[in-house]
Write a structure and sequence with these properties.
5-stranded antiparallel sheet, Phosphatase 2c, domain 1, alpha+beta, about 20% helix, about 425 residues, 9 helices, 6-stranded antiparallel sheet, globular
Length: about 425
Amino acid sequence: MNPYENAPPAGRVPEPGPDHAPPRKGDPIELASSVYEHGWDLEPVAPVPVGAAVAAVAPGPVAPEEFLPRPIGPGPAAVHGPRPDPVSPVGGPVEPAVAPPAGPAEADTTAASGPVVRPASFREPGPLSHVGRKPPAYPAEPTDLPSVRAGDPYGALLPDTVVDGGRFGPVTVRAASVRGDSHRYAAECRQDAALVVRVGELLLVAVADGVGSQPHSHHGSNGILRLLAKQVAPKAETLLGVLRTGSAADFASLTSRLVAAAAGELAQEAERAGHPPKSWSTTLRALLVPADPEVRVRGFVSVGDGGLLRLREGGWDNLDAEEDGDDPLISTRTDCLPEAYELARTRLITDTRPGDLLVLCTDGLALPLLKEPELREFLGGRWAREVPGLAEFLWQAQVRVRSYDDDRSVVCLWEAPA
């Protein structure tokens, strides 16, 4: 039953949503009766006998203050350890010039434990930030979970969000793939995917965007990343040699064959699952990075839309626009795997500098980055300053922009500074 197409049950008010939101899909499983009909009542608590001894509870904290959880905000650099008390030159703590005001919840504990000192960057917990004059129409957090549909449990098993990262040779990596607001609201699974994997002395990072009009595109996006890694692994040494020589023709020839082989396996998997290969349609973007810091060449291969941007000295460059000016994000033509494997585009990035940041992403982030200056300023101001931790990166990558509610997958590569 779809609660947005029928009258809600008595006492239930349907959750409000944007006017243009897709309808929620009804869960095929409905409970036939309430659990309360089975007599699951709590046993009454026996009264305390009159005159019975009651253990006295001493006032004060039940645990040392250093073991108590401290409130932290979701914003960047909000997690810090407790600050040490200042000490005067003659010994003893220094009284603060201005004591921080205590909130209502802290008023009863200040006498026993002293004022709570929070980091300067502390943010009150709340919804994710957004840029732009108007907030997004959708809720800031997931409101429903995908269900098993049409006998395909794979979509229901995909997590809402994944985050990954680490260090490899000359680069520090952060990656995230997040279900978009519209898919969250419609109880649909995440159709994007991201990959960070080491293959020999190469780092392979990639993102894929399942085509929303196809019913099984989440199989395609996750499958093509797995199969590409499978194809790259036995050719890692050869690819490393090509990147050392900087031969664009050899790189294009080899990676095009690897993409074609991965696409062929993807089509076979779709057929074995009883699905037309087209229903697994997905885009692909990948970068190959050598572990050797002396090799500054990075290899890029893509099929379909998405983005590859570089942040250098505070300025953004779009590295994915073709030489003839046909930007794959603006073009109405969308190439997808497994069918369009022969349309793979490749290039070598040979002018990498220390301190550069490469941003590989699906169009869920590429479009607002290219079109919204406020988002470029927001992310550029943070990513150019320091490499964030995994939790901070996830928070930053999710900063929302009205009208951009698709899945987001992004991998960032920070080149080591000189």
